Task: inverse folding
């Protein structure tokens, strides 16, 4: 399977600044691709477009040759966001958060180090690292074919960061899920990715 | 050179939140527990901890802006005198300034220039603000922009400009580089370094150990609401000179140092029990780890670990890298 | 480290006070309904009595017991307030949701309607509608219901629009969760408390407006023991020194309004996360 972005241009409604200009990218389901750019150069925006959260002004996103927007229901391209606190409803218990996703193997929950005791808690009662594990698990449902990870460990400590990436790398290799790692940290990208693409103006 | 004075000294700080437990019972949540640190003139001290470990509360405690349901014990001394609500109100924004984490601290409807000058319109302030902007590589006409017209890096520099207008003696930077790429983040931190070099004390609160190592003098390793170690930057050059098992695990987890991980997670601040917060994950845990552990001096730094004692420099029974 | 702190706290005080207010209002509503016949009984042998032990609120020019009449009037007001606040809330809910969900055209239309209703002075519009509907109970109910939904509708629209853009709801959409389920699981829990508070805070307005248009003669008919009727009748006798005719019913009306307001504010504070731990 292939996720493809073709000649994408994008600017936000206020028209103040063009964020993406003729941006193209190809991600194969067997690879781990790094994406890096200075801040303000549209890393998050390109993830949002690739995952179908935003419509590009020009260009298109293709999954297996078909436009991504033609996939209804569960989206095979799942994005994980930088701030887990905003990615979960503060009024839902963690087990309900997990249930929102697709069918999930117990192996994933265990592999991410999610403890049973956390399932009955509310988001405000978990640390950032603990919450992010839930967000990752939720995105790893059965029908997921691509994962876009937008600075998902930036706010976490180094140990948690290495824990999460080691699990995620193993999981995507096993299931042949394509992985896009967005990060500003070059050592991290070097460590994780098969190749790295730079985004620039 | 004469001895630098201590600008900020925090002793045994604990912060307790009183909150309702869904129903009508109130619970008390201890988010910061027994935290001590000092910042001297001309020194930059970095408090490094993961998000959710309660480190921002430290900044709020010093600035006297804790939320209404928080209460504080322990002592905060500014210039060797207790920093009570009355004194902090006198110094806040003048001698003690906070460079906040969020861009939303700028007023979106006010031009940048008047925000830097805090609304003053006299010539002296204008000259001052121009020179401050120039110092941070911003053009004079930046003053006429509104916050939404600024890029991320510019916003940071504006926030710093606001802080240095009054020649502060203590600068607290709460997570000053979120979302900035490495080069921009380094540039922002170098401005804080300059402020320290000019004689102010800088307390940097960050999650990014690698960045902190580039600019700070000392690192306070913060874990689950308390500080487990205080070390010199040079101690981080190799694993053996670090004092606490957690700091060593951090060292080994860096992408350049093997990317090793340790099972378990950092507990949510409210869940911390007595004793060493890292005990549940540590390879050397023994019964005594669950009792109160003194924060003691080892090789010039500080550590909260029973395996460390000052006599032998704290290296006994702790070989390199086998703590996985 | 969490420790449970037992004992009395502010939240318990608030709930107890709220419960007392509710009991008081409910008993007024019920008592008034039971005594609605007695409120009409005239007895010219005891007319214009000043407050005394037997008639704590005095009697009026037709010898009616003012205590019973006041309670009956308040009961009427409370029941009418309940009905109108409920209808307004339903209208607000439908309009707010429609504006937020049905796209730009519907949004513009509903916002225009809200501006129109809010632009005309409340009392004027109320009188017009009530009068056109033939006054009386039905006229007042329709008049108040059609004029009080606007601010709540606006609030709901804003909330829903904001929720729709929130990260976790957008993620839920990508996880293939249906619109209906998102509405029930994610949106309702956020909006329901606000709706409830809005509804209760609408009460005092409805009651006061009912009393004022009845006082002006465009509301309930003079035969009904409404507070507005009582107050407007008492005007003629005030100049003759019959102060109790206006004072006690007026005070009780103010008390009722304040109690409803207190209940609404307290509920609002209990459900507002910004105040959650006070």
Result:
């Amino acid at each position: 399977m292939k996720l493809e972005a073709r000649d994408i241009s994008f600017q936000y409604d206020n028209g103040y600044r063009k964020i993406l200009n003729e941006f193209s990218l190809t991600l194969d389901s067997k690879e781990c691709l790094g994406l890096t750019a200075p801040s303000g150069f549209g890393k998050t925006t390109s993830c949002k477009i690739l995952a179908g959260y935003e419509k590009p002004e020009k260009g298109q996103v293709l999954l297996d040759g078909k436009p991504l927007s033609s996939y209804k229901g569960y989206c095979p391209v799942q994005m994980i966001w930088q701030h887990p606190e905003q990615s979960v409803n503060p009024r839902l218990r963690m087990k309900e958060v997990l249930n929102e996703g697709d069918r999930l193997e117990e192996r994933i929950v265990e592999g991410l180090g999610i403890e049973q005791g956390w399932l009955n808690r509310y988001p405000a009662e978990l640390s950032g690292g603990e919450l992010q594990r839930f967000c990752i698990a939720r995105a790893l449902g059965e029908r997921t074919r691509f994962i876009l990870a937008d600075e998902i460990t930036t706010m976490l400590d180094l140990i948690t960061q290495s824990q999460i990436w080691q699990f995620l790398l193993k999981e995507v290799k096993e299931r042949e899920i394509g992985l896009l790692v967005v990060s500003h940290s070059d050592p991290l990208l070097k460590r994780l990715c098969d190749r790295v693409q730079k985004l620039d103006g | 050179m004469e001895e630098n004075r201590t600008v900020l000294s925090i002793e045994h700080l604990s912060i307790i939140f009183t909150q309702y437990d869904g129903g009508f019972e109130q619970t008390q949540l201890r988010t910061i527990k027994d935290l001590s640190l000092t910042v001297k003139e001309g020194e930059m001290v970095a408090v490094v901890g993961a998000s959710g470990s309660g480190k921002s509360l430290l900044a709020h405690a010093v600035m006297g802006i804790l939320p209404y349901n928080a209460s504080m014990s322990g002592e905060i001394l500014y210039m060797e005198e207790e920093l009570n609500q009355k004194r902090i109100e006198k110094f806040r924004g003048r001698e003690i300034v906070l460079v906040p984490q969020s861009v939303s601290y700028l007023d979106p409807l006010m031009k940048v220039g008047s925000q830097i000058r805090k609304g003053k319109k006299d010539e002296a302030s204008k000259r001052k603000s121009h020179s401050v902007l120039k110092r941070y590589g911003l053009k004079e006409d930046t003053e006429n922009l509104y916050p939404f017209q600024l890029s991320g890096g510019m916003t940071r520099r504006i926030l710093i400009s606001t802080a240095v207008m009054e020649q502060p003696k203590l600068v607290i930077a709460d997570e000053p580089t979120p979302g900035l790429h490495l080069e921009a983040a380094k540039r922002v931190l170098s401005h804080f370094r300059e402020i320290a070099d000019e004689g102010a004390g800088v307390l940097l609160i960050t999650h990014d150990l690698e960045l902190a190592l580039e600019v700070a003098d000392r690192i306070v390793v913060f874990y689950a609401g308390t500080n487990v170690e205080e070390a010199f930057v040079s101690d981080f050059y190799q694993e053996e000179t670090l004092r606490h098992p957690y700091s060593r695990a951090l060292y080994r987890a860096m992408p350049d140092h093997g990317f090793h991980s340790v099972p378990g997670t950092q507990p949510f601040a409210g869940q911390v029990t007595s004793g060493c917060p890292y005990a549940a994950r540590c390879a050397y845990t023994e019964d005594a780890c669950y009792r109160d552990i003194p924060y003691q001096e080892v090789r010039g730094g500080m550590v909260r670990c029973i395996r460390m004692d000052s006599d032998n420099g704290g290296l006994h029974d702790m070989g390199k890298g086998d703590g996985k | 480290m969490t420790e449970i702190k037992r004992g009395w706290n502010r939240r318990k005080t608030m709930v107890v006070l709220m419960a007392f207010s509710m009991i008081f209002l409910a008993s007024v509503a019920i008592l008034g309904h039971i005594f609605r016949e007695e409120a009409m009984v005239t007895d010219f042998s005891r007319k214009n009595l000043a407050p005394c032990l037997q008639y704590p609120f005095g009697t009026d020019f037709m010898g009616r017991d003012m205590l019973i009449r006041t309670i009956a009037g308040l009961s009427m007001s409370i029941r009418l307030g309940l009905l109108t606040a409920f209808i307004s809330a339903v209208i607000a809910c439908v309009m707010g949701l429609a504006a937020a969900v049905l796209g730009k055209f519907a949004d513009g239309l509903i916002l225009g309607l809200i501006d129109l209703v809010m632009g005309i002075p409340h009392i004027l519009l109320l009188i017009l509608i009530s009068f056109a509907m033939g006054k009386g109970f039905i006229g007042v109910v329709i008049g108040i219901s059609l004029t009080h939904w606007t601010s709540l509708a606006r609030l709901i629209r804003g909330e829903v629009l904001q929720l729709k853009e929130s990260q976790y709801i957008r993620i839920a959409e990508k996880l293939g969760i249906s619109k209906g389920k998102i509405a029930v699981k994610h949106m309702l829990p956020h909006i329901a408390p606000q709706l409830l508070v809005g509804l209760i805070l609408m009460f005092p307005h409805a009651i006061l407006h009912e009393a004022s248009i009845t006082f002006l003669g465009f509301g309930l008919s003079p035969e009904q023991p409404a507070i507005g009727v009582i107050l407007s009748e008492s005007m003629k006798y005030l100049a003759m020194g019959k102060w109790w005719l206006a004072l006690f019913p007026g005070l009780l009306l103010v008390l009722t309004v304040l109690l409803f307001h207190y209940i609404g504010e307290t509920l609002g504070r209990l459900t507002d996360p910004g105040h959650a731990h006070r």
About this structure: The CA atoms of residues 71 and 119 of chain C lie 35 Å apart. The radius of gyration of chain C is 23 Å. Chain C touches chain B through 13 residues (CB under 8 Å). The mean pLDDT of chain C is 84.
